[in-house]
Amino acid sequence: MAEETTPELRQTRMKEFMSLLPLTMELAGLPKAQLGTIFTEGQMEVRVLNIRAAYKLARTLVKEIGEG
């Protein structure tokens, strides 16, 4: 049986994500939408996938820096 994620662990993960967000967005390289631009569902999904991949790389980079 899988362990339940505690509220403290969720909060820690969210803090980590938010602290890495500027680096993540730079790595993702996504252009900002112009005012009034509405993305399609497919475009949003592609952006989410890019951000997710960039977050994993940002997290790995920060861990490597901390270890090195």
Give a structural overview.
The chain is mostly helical. Helix 1 (7-28) packs across helix 2 (41-67). 72% of the residues lie in helices and 0% in strands. The protein has two helices and no strands. The chain has helices spanning 7-28, 41-67. It is extended and about 40 Å long.
Topology of this structure?
Elements: H1 7-28, H2 41-67
Helix pairs in contact: 1-2
Task: Label this structure with key terms.
68 residues; 0% strand; mainly alpha; single chain; 2 helices
As a percent range, the share of helical residues equals over 70%
Number of strands: 0
Distance between the termini: 36 Å
Give the strand content. Answer: under 5%
Structural class: mainly alpha
SSE pattern, N- to C-terminal: HH
Number of helices: 2
Unreliable stretches covering 5 or more consecutive residues? none
Oligomer: single chain
Radius of gyration: 15 Å
Average of per-residue pLDDT values: 93
Shape: extended
Main sheet makeup: none
Short structural summary:
It contains two helices and no strands.
